[in-house]
Amino acid sequence: MKFFVISDNKDTQNGMRLTGAEGVVVHEAHEVEEALHRAFSDPEIGIVLMTQKLIHLCPELVFDLKLNRKRPLIVEIPDRHATSKISDTISRYIQEAVGIKI
């Protein structure tokens, strides 16, 4: 199983590359969609790491993929400009998936 990084900056991508994770740097919503479709079509990719900024560019697509696809797992990672707490994101995801506020 491989990791795939979809980042909005080269620093994050280069840091993840040091761990062996390949990926792309994108800035527009259509580029995010293309990168996600690329990741979801590769059977070797098990986890997609995405920066918060990119998830906010196309949240409907990301949450649809999280809820309706078993593989790969999409994990939101904070970028260097972290604007929200990851725990808030996880809580929102659970609330949307299960319908329970925690």
From TrEMBL:
Entry-linked InterPro entries: ATPase_V1-cplx_f_g_su (IPR008218), ATPase_V1_fsu_sf (IPR036906)
A GO molecular-function descriptor: proton-transporting ATPase activity, rotational mechanism
Keywords: Ion transport, Transport
Keyword hit for Signal: no
SUPFAM superfamilies: AtpF-like
Ion transport is among the record's keywords: yes
Pfam families membership: ATP-synt_F
Gene3D superfamilies in the cross-refs: ATPase, V1 complex, subunit F (3.40.50.10580)
Similarity comment: Belongs to the V-ATPase F subunit family.
Protein name: V-type ATP synthase subunit F
UniProt lineage: Bacteria, Bacillati, Bacillota, Clostridia, Eubacteriales
